[in-house]
Write a structure and sequence with these properties.
Shape: globular
Largest sheet: 8 strands, antiparallel
Oligomer: single chain
Strand order of the largest sheet: 5-4-3-2-9-8-7-6
Strand content: 25-35%
Radius of gyration: 18 Å
Helix content: 25-40%
């Protein structure tokens, strides 16, 4: 048996959640979602250090809460799922296929289904820069907008449901999912491929994302893009130890390793 006990106070402190009492309602769900999303960054640096991405509750809590690191979908949504269940929400994991490139991936994206009364919500803090800032109702073609984002879920004949984001006047497919039960072994399979396969996007690029007040920060390899109040700034990072200092300054990510331990940046093509 696990000797792990989820520490609610430490979790709430980590996400800067103002209330010690957590109600089981949509208002609180929305607030917890937003709080974790803006406190715990999306990042894949342990993968690039060749470390195992461990999802058992004790390791997950220690990394994201104790060490104040970030993670990717299996970690971020895994932590949120643990928290929601501890606070009394009816919540369970879902697995989906990523469609951003046009071709569907394997079932490599973990999200969360939350049920409150007769309503079902997709809760996702692990889709990088395109993660919804609020829970999305699982209702066909009911657009939801928050700040500068608009999302909807539509029915899909092949995949069940499709989450889309609005890009100008068009809707972009993000990921598809269904409501079938997800077993622990399903998550282990998805996490193993996504974190170790040479074909995985996360094994071949340095990535970080964090929503901030009135904007967001996104990192891709050697470039940080800061969008604040509609204005964009690009910061080019050097291929040396100053890279780690930038991660800590912009994202609060402290890497407990030397810079040279990271998988090298991809070679630039002319």
């Amino acid at each position: 048996m696990s000797d792990f006990t989820f520490n609610k106070e430490e979790y709430l402190k980590r996400i800067s959640f103002p209330n010690k009492e957590v109600a089981v309602d949509f208002k609180t769900l929305k607030a917890i979602h937003r709080a974790q999303h803006t406190a715990v960054p999306f990042e894949n640096f342990d993968i690039l250090l060749g470390r195992e991405i461990r999802l058992e509750p004790k390791s997950l809590f220690q990394k994201l809460v104790g060490q104040k690191r970030g993670g990717y979908c299996f970690e971020l949504n895994g932590l949120l799922l643990m928290a929601l269940k501890e606070f009394g929400f009816e919540a369970r994991p879902l697995l989906g296929r990523v469609h951003v490139s046009g071709d569907p991936s394997g079932r490599s994206h973990q999200t969360t289904l939350v049920t409150i009364g007769d309503e079902k919500w997709l809760v996702d803090v692990g889709f990088g820069a395109e993660s919804p800032l609020i829970p999305i109702p699982i209702v066909h073609d009911q657009p939801v907008s928050f700040e500068d984002q608009s999302y909807r879920i539509i029915n899909d004949a092949q995949f069940g449901y499709m989450l889309q984001s609005k890009q100008g006047t068009d809707w972009k497919n993000l990921h598809s999912f269904d409501l079938n039960p997800v077993l622990e072994i399903d998550i282990k399979f998805g996490n193993h491929f996504t974190s170790t396969s040479p074909e995985s996007f996360f094994a071949n690029a340095r990535i970080a994302a964090l929503p901030v007040e009135n904007g967001r920060l996104t990192l891709y390899n050697d470039r940080i893009k800061k969008v604040l109040n509609g204005k964009e700034e690009v910061i080019m990072l050097k291929d040396d130890a100053s890279y780690l200092a930038a991660l800590e300054k912009e994202y609060g990510i402290t890497i407990d390793a030397e810079y040279n331990a990271l998988k090298p940046l991809p070679a630039k093509t002319s």
